Fold each of these.
Amino acid sequence: MFKKENSASSYFMLSAAIWLVIGVSMGLILALQFVFPDLFRGVSWLVFSRLRQAHTNTVMFAWLSGGMMGLWLYIVPRLTGRKLWSEPLGNLSMILWNVALAVGIVAILAAQTQSREYAEFIWVVDVAVMVVLLMNLVNIYMTIAHRVESKLYVSLWYISGSLVWMPLLYFIGNVMWNPPTGALTGVNDTIFNWFYGHNVLGLWFTTGLLPVIYYIVPKETRTPLYSHVLSLIAFWGIAFFYTGVGAHHLLWAPIPYWLKTIAIADSIGMILPVGAFMMNIYLTMRGNWNRFFSSISLRFVITGWAAYILVSYQGSHQALRGINLLTHFTQYVPGHAHLALLFFSASVIMGGMYYVLPRIYNCRLYSRKLANVQYSLYVIGFAFFFIGFMLTGLVQGTAWLHQGLPVWSVLPGLRPYMALRAMGGTLLVISFIIFTYNILATVIKRQPAAHPTLPVQTAVATATD
Amino acid sequence: MKMTFKTIVIGGVIVFLAVVLAAVFIPSLVWNPEQTVIAHNYTPQEERGRELFYSNGCNYCHTQYVREEDTAMGPVSQGGSYIFDNPMILGSERTGPDLSYLGRKRSEAWEIAHLQNPRQYSPLSIMPSFEFLSDEDLEAIAAYLFALGDRVAQERMILPPLAYAGQTDPIEYPAATPVPPDQSQGWATWEAADLQAGKEIYVENCLTCHGCAGNGLGSYAGTMSVTPANFKQEPYRSMPDDQWFWHVSEGVPGTLMPTWKTSLTEEQRWQVIRYIQQVFAYPIMRDPDEGDPSGAYANLTNPVPLTVETLEEGKAIFIRECMVCHGDAGRGDGPYADGLQPPPPDFGDGSYGTLDNPSYTDADYFWRISEGLPWSAMPAWKSQYSEEDRWKLVHYIRVNFTQTEERPSLTTDQVYPDIYLTQTMPESVSETAVIEGNVTESATMAPSFERGKQLYLTTCTQCHGLSGQGDGWNGQYLDVPPANFTDLNMRGMTDGDYFARVSLGVQNSAMPTWGEFLPVEQRWDVIKYIQEAFVDGRPDLDSLCDESIASSVITLSQDNWLGEGNVISTTHGAEIYQSTCATCHGDQGQGDGAGAANLPSGAPAAFPQDLPFNYIFWRTLDGAPESIMPAFRGFLSETDIWDVSAYMESMLNPQSGGG
């Protein structure tokens, strides 16, 4: 079972799909607690402040990272022209990953946390995460090292980069050399925290999911990638600019002023690689937009691509001092984070799973109709959800900054927007449940049907008859 | 560019590490802010509280850093304030208030209760309840919060916008405070600083809300959801000029404080600010020598005929405006007199002369009422009351308090309106009303013996005495003696008779028209108490000795008070005992005081010899329910209660040495 080709990839993705439902349900409870604070009164592990940490870690690591690593384990063999170097090692990392995260998340709900944003896991879990990251590094690097296809496609650049950046990032950002608290003493700890906090997105999810877009878009459109040069600009641009943006979370904190300026410059510099990536995919899609409607996986992946462009530009402008002044500390910022993780990352991973899983099991998707419904709910739900976040944030920001109102006095006026967010969130949760159901049903039922054959192949097949 | 595997991995790592070096490691190495006064090491309990704080994720809604653009949160956070913190919990969202300077703002007990039930204190709060934490955990968190920041309230004040920042009073402070300070400072210096103009503006514009005594308890104050400023408290006592000028000019957001710049000139605003500062916010002990009435006020005599009717009209004004400071018997001991400098005068101290030889003329009284006094909070009433009204007030004060005018003789007995006389004590059951098909309980407030007792203590005892015999310490100097409720003649009075007298006062005496002041329910409370305590008696008095001591005082001893750096004086306690307790309990605690002799409910029992200190203290503090023993909490100061309890203990147990 654990030696079967593509099993690690599949199990990573399926476990992630289950985590997805858990993670977004936590999110929905949080959204409801903003409106009904006494919803789970007296239940210690459902108290907002603990659940929020559990929610971010569940969706970021258990769902997104798990699904992402599953996709890599499928894509890398395809691009290297050989099987995964070690399927058992892949499965071992999958098991350890899920166990470690289950322990970490339960620990957070039991108030065992380091309470540094996105670096909340206790040291033991940190170590297990590091082990999994290194196991994956070995497995995929060995696959690449023993590849058949000599040329390295752009997806492999990103995957190789992410694999080496994330362990470094995780080790430094989690201050793993100080096990008791996983933190430094004094204000410099925040520099480490946010270097890590932002680069989990920048050098893990971004660099881990752009290769999925780079892989699926040409595959589904049957069009070669538009430009090698644009790929180069995007790759090295991200590596250079993204690494230094962390301090833009701390523009008003007592850290060196020049560091803030570097972070802002890097954030604005991100426009360069994002623009290059945007044009590269856009020009690849040129003439292929009909496939956006006919291919479910491409639809999700391209939606993720659009969300990536949006969130990147939003992020760059949000890092400007004048705009940050208004949005900092408000719900606008988690809104931005959800645009990145819930609309960019999740969309690409869902598209990837819709693409990969039927191919692994050689079956067709359980229900295209459900997938279509799910897509609509996802987009509509997210629109309400995101607008709720943004309005909450802007009302907070203007009330504090322009009217000088105290924090508590603004809260009652935010309730409608918070309710809007909870409503959009409900649609999203329904959409994700449908997704997980569809994926699991696909794998369990394995309806053998219309093989996703190409017209060319049919022609060839007919010719050989 | 050829992207080989080596190029990607080695190149990627080099770029990454180079940026990390520049953006993470170098800043951490060069940035070592020095410790500030805010940073403090944590005690083990605070450290534990901090751990609980962050492990429960409080920092996900409560930030701990104040940014430059934040208003009313305190000083902008400095890096050196965090040198003991690990991990850092600056926070990234501000769903709840910033906690940087929370310390000392609330008590630890409040923090615990708030953590358990946030909406009990802030109904609109969306903070979750942390009632699932153990008491020990909650105490630790409270200890941590109590030590956070620890700064005075003024540092949290909203800074004035640029247009107002740094503005100062156009008149130099020395000009308003002439030196040497021991010389008497009369009208000349007062007017030189425009303070009289300021007072007049204050009386016309500010008095209804902020009150004549500047304590924020003007007559409209109770109608507002946000209390007007009490200038005798922080932050007003040390507020800089620009803050004053900004708030007076632009009003205060979220309150009813108006934007005065539309109706007052800049000069007038400074005048009124100067008045508030000098008289309420930071008064200095002065010797105001106001001199004699001059100009238009010289040699005036009272043109209003002295009749019972004009006296009554004067009384109504006195009750409405003057009593809060001057006291109901004119002894200068009204509840708002606290902290006023100079204090209101004692009309009964004998310095006002006699009927035949008064020290002050009509003009003296009238002038002071009209213009106020320099360097004092006495308002200038000329803009609020007509000359005739002020003259009536002069009559009232001279006849009743300083007793330098002949009391007019009553030609006919006072006739109270029937509507008052026919009132009866409200039923003590709630009525059920049917409104549009819905049965609604309209709870009529049943008069309460206990509420009446406390109200009697604070409003009536000064004249009528604790035992209701008209022998209160203020009432003794009045020439119309206060009523003695134990007098047998009182027994014939109906509810309506009481209600009329309490509401409308008693003609030609100093008995106030409480109808101007107390709501109907409170009047009935106090009437019920008077009837049951002094007139008719109360059938269901409990025996007190069976009751066990309240748990909150069971372990109490004098050490609790002494441990906080206070002293206990049995000599002072003896004075309090003689003036307050002896009237019923007797000189030696035998229950044979003069006041107890006529009490319908009987004299208090003699104190047993072994009465424990904590019992005495508790009863004095909280009173004895269902008896006439009132709760002296808030009436006597806490020092007085400790002293008198200690005195009683030493009186009952002489061999114990008095504790």
Amino acid sequence: MADFVLLVPLISLLVAPFRRRFEIAILLGDADAKVAALGSIALGAVVGLVGYQTLFVNLWAATPGKRLLGLRVVSVWTGARPSVSHSFLRSVTWCASLFFLLIPWVAVLSNRRRRPWHDRIADTEVVAVDPARGVGEPDPREAAVASSLRAAGVFALCGFATSVLMNAPETGERRAAKAAAGNPFLCGQVTETHEEWLGREGTAPPRLDVALALFGADAVSERCLELEADYALWNGMASPAAYLAKALSRADDAENYVDYARKACDKGPREPACRLARLLASGGDRDRAPAAAGSLGPLEIDELLPSLEGVAPAYLRVYAVRELVRGNRFQEALSAIEGGSPHRKLGYFFARHRAQALWGLRHLNEARLAVKSSLEGLSVVQRTALAGWLCSAENATACGEQAAASCDLLRRAVERDPAELEDPETAVAWIRGEECVAAGRPDMEKMRKLASGPAVRLLLGGIERAQAGDASAAKRTFAAVAGDSEAESAFWFEAQARLVATVEDEGELEEIQKRWAEAGPVEPGWLRLGHALLRRSESLGLSKRTLQIAKLVVATDPFDETLQKSVVVWAFHEGDLATAGRALDQVSRGRTTGQPPAEPARALASVAEPEFERVAKLVDEKRPSAIDPPTGRSRANPKRGAAP
Amino acid sequence: MIFPFFRGILPPHLAPVTWFFVVVNLFVFIVNLPSHLASQAAVDAYIKDNDFVRTQGNVFSQFVQKNPGKYTSLFNAMSRNALQGDWFSQLMMGSYGARDRNFVEAAGRFQASGDAVALARWRAEYFDFRDAQAASPVHKWGLSLSRPRWTNYVTYQFAHSGFQHILWNMAFLVFFATFLERLIGGSLVTLTYLGAGVVGAVVFAGFPGLSYSPLIGASGSLSGLMALLAVRLWDQPVRFVYWFLPLPGYWGFRELPAWLIIPVYFVPDVAGLLTSIPETGGVAYTAHLGGALFGTAVGLGLRFGWLEAEEPPAPLEESF
């Protein structure tokens, strides 16, 4: 032990050059050099320690530290100084203890003859020169300290091993990234897409345009976009697109966003990047632009659309599609999607938005076909997500034959890889799909085997109780999911939709309705809960409330012809002729957009076609005098979907 | 754990010179404490702002790339990494830039090109940051390679950068110097304290390093006193205190030869010097070793009779 006083400085001197190399490797982020330097340090330390010990133990029967303390190492058989081989064996095992955090040394406190494993292995013993100074057998206090030290050592060893194991893959990843890309610090996904684009078409848009397009399609993270923006800005490639990318990568910091977005408009308001900044400022998508961005001079999507025809950057098209689908302008979204040849990495984004637009237009069969035909080029995760979207869209209103067929895609994907269920949206879509396929009596045992995560298990438990006929227990279970503030919103919507079906009291219904309206239609599952509310409120005979909910639902889903017709009739009976007129306009507009709805599957059967025809006539008659001319853009064009 | 104990801490009436130095050090520290803390808080506010430091890192990296000959290959490589987008390198270069003389002097005029928004923000804050850094008493008392004043060769020995810094230095001072004062007298202690400090500073100034970070602390002087003691007594036993476990028999005092001080305290300094990357700074090993050199010279002088130790004011009760 006393040798440490001498050894630590000597060994640190020996390995100093390697430590220096190690520090330089850390500063330069060079993983290979770091490992090599660490290895040299360990090797240098071991060689130094073993050499020092072997030499002194064999020649002097003691290391200098032991000599100073009046101790000797002797062979247990001869009582003389140990042979070279025994000295060497003792030194090697002594060193090995270092790699076990000195736990074996603790035996000095507990072994009867105070011989740790290196002494026992090498048949040696440490004795005092002056027998009077020998310490004798350990007392119980020492043994107690020994066991606590051992426990602490084992604990620390486990922690150390865990941290080494957990950090190891990171090094490997960084090395792989380095091998793949010329610049290891940039975003790998952008590099990959850019190179593929270049390889396929011979030319590719600038790197930053690719990054912006991928970010618009939610295919890369904010950090990734910021890396790309910083690289461009600090390497002589400052451009409006780079400033915009920097703004978008920090959309949560309003002041920062506005400064950078303004800079993107330095070269004029018609610059593509500036146009996008202004479009986002007016779009109301708070994930992409803070409210303060309004000062940039908003740009309406209509002003952007004509420029998409030319050589506009890919990202403009991505954001235009985003905004058009958000605004229920499905026809225009479809033509924006058709206009470009999206890259494979953007495939999921375009496939999903195309299917969403077709679905919104109620071209259901085309939407199904679009989903099925695009699955081929997607990754497994994207395929499952797209199948999940289709299944939940099918099931948002009712479960029919087509819905069962569509959900089969998702079921197969989940059975292949149950890990996909970790995505809440996919999990909820899957549960609904299983129910739909099995006509309300799914195979619970199989589902429980596949499912993971507490919220999914709770939902399944509720369904099982409902199947068993225990309505109140089912209700309690769903309420537990809905009441869990930590649960993902997809689970909240699903649990509420199931709770609504059993609500008897208008106050309770109103409470759920309020929270539903506040959540807003961007949340997945919103439409599903809307329809559930609608069904319940109608069956409870709450006509005013039914109309209220229906108005919000059709604002998000204007091409739902069946519901629009119902709104005409309900609004007329409530005396709300303005709403009835608007809904009627939408019904006729929907008819001119193309083919009639392929499958008007609807649980709301309360409004019969003859009743609609009768009311429609009445509304039309009263229109010129009784209805005010429409005011405001969003009112004049119901396709744009007045937000609730 | 092993620590030279000698006779423990001798009281002021037995070692007045040593205690005078302790008082001066504490006095300087306490007087400077308010302005030191204020400057530290101001600088910290900037250092904690990652955007500020990263921008500064990018600017410094461009500065290094424009003057590659003035910087080591490490800084050249790190600046390349920073400009390639490595956040870690940007942060590191940002803080190294604040301690580089060339950069600190030229940063205000340097035409960096890059993220115009970040640059405008950084320029607006940079001068405040630099002034806050320069306002620290560390810069007034410490020996800075960027503007060395001869008075700083002495004043730096009495300034410390924080509680821990002064606590350790004073602990070593009272253990070593009170004992030494009884051995060789107050005037030689004074000579060694000041002389080792000056020589340490001269050696420090002769090596490359962080050119804007000032050298402070009594460690150069202390190294001189420690080396003097080791050389003067050499193989005479002095008392060390050791501590392995809080059990009887596992801690206590032991007489060991005085030369042990050299492997225990100076070999690590040599190892540290070999390990340290001069441009990233830290402990001033060069100053320690320079001080030790002076202390060794005094110790040898005493051993060989070129210097004469004073008679202690009162005879010591026991021999060493």
Amino acid sequence: MSADRVLYDWTPDVRSYAVRLGLSLMGVECRMQAVDMDLPAPHHADGLLAGECPPVLECAGVRLTRPGTILHYIARQPDVARAWLDPAHEWAILNWLDFGVSALDTLASARGAALATAMPVPPATGALDAVLRRMEDHMAVRAMDGHDWFAAPAASIADVMLFVVFALSADVGVERDTCPALRRWARGLRALPGFAVMPGVPDYA
Amino acid sequence: MERWHSVSVLSDIRPGEVAGVRIDGHEVVLWREDTPAASLHAWEDRCPHRGMRLSFGFVRGDAMGCLYHGWQFGAAGRCRLIPAHPQVRVPASIHVRAYGVREHAGLAWVNMEGTDGFPDHATHWPDDVQPVRSVHVRRGATQLRQAIGLEAVDGMAWRGSVGLAVHEPVAGQAMLHVVCARSGEPAPTPVALSHWASRLRDAVESGNPTATIMGELA
């Protein structure tokens, strides 16, 4: 089955990490095609179309290029536990997933300015701060109501997307002590079977 | 009271958990043992080996382990294990600086200058307290204290059953810690208090009057 799925993956890219993490947590195997977008276009990777940027998932004639859609698609596969897109909480999950995708775009742009340029500059983090504050307020109240996860009784694809936003916001200078509810929630996600790391997201912390 | 800083609500630091906090720009690791005693520790957030933040590390029983090379530190911050040299008896000179720490009124209090001087008036605060949450505010501690009517020397402001404390992780930013006494006057639910704290934060940050919001607690 894994041979039928191909993920074009760029290791340091935050959106690619969200997909890798989701695949790993959901226990889905996939053939990985490494891409280096820092190289000139002809050397990116065989099979990547002009103008495409990882992550790109190719599966059974479907070609998906947005991380939220890819996680949604994977969660709907018959061999994946239903909790990742719990039908009883589907709208809340998809709502937070969509929030997370926008937040990840915000993070990617700030992080790119901070790390991935010849002349890094401290990025403006106002938009990211607003996103994290909304997440923090939400999870503070969720915890008081006895919930561990953003949108459902168990971890969902929304938690995967939002975890990447929180975990890598440290790269643009967001300190963990300003988001205690998110720190607790992130600790829970790290403890799930299949959790995967990337540069900037170690095993602990 | 100025030397004792309220750095966290106790519900955010459970057995086996590690949290990095800052006090006036100084990085402090707060961690709780994963043992029946579950003692709380506050140390300088820096491994003496390579300077790694210990708050990135992990708790193993009654020891704190550094993420970088696994050095483990036990009571009073003394290094007890260097995994690359397990047979070595670690000299006492290898240790992390330990700070004074107290658990009181639902909050963790840290004194970076020693363990004494916890004020007598704090003993009159309620014992049976439910921690609610800590809220980040993008204004200095002085401005936040003014908004809630708290003198720095008092440590906490009580409005009915609700207790409020403030500390400054770094200049220009503050954390508002909210707790609620379980006995005594009826109090809002924790969820209602969380929303209240968010509204207070938004008012303080935008420079709007806070008297009406504070009046909700009376």
